[in-house]
Design brief:
With 145 residues, the chain is mainly alpha-helical. The chain is built from two helices and three strands, in the order αβββα. A hairpin with an 8-residue loop joins strand 1 and strand 2.
Length: 145
């Protein structure tokens, strides 16, 4: 008759419930410290991308006006449309969208005023606060942003 030997489980195998709970609490604490900072950086990055896009589009609008004897484009589509020589002001297939997926708003100058170029922010509607606030070219140009 064979005897089965039972192996004793050593106390060093696996983790105890207390050890697992300590690790989970530490991970939770780290998450509460890291997540708000990451979200704030994403907000800042989105605003900076919108500012960079608006500056690039504004330069393209100005270049268009220079090449067309002071006549500004009626829409941003004119910046990606080839002229008679096959040249585009913006070498792209489409006008870029703001970081939130909305179209940039453009209005040609009227009555001696500057052109209007802006992003309506995350909410995509005029006005708003925080990440829903408008970002306009005039605010960028005046150093308000």
């Amino acid at each position: 008759m064979k005897t089965q030997s039972r192996k004793r489980r050593s106390s060093s195998e696996g983790f105890s419930l207390a050890e697992l709970m300590v690790v989970i609490v530490i991970i939770g604490l780290l998450a509460t410290l890291v997540v708000p900072n990451v979200v704030a950086k994403l907000f800042t990055a989105s605003n900076k991308k919108a500012i960079a896009d608006i500056n690039s589009i504004a330069q393209a609008v100005t270049e268009y006006a220079i090449q067309n004897n002071g006549s500004y484009p009626d829409s941003l589509e004119a910046l990606i449309t080839e002229d008679s020589k096959g040249f585009k002001i913006l070498d792209r297939e489409t006008i870029p969208r703001d970081p939130w997926g909305n179209e940039y708003y453009y209005e040609p100058p009227t009555s001696g005023q500057n052109f209007v170029l802006l992003s309506y922010g995350k909410d995509g509607t005029p006005g708003g606060e925080a990440d829903g606030a408008d970002i306009t070219y005039s605010m960028i140009r005046n150093g308000e942003i």
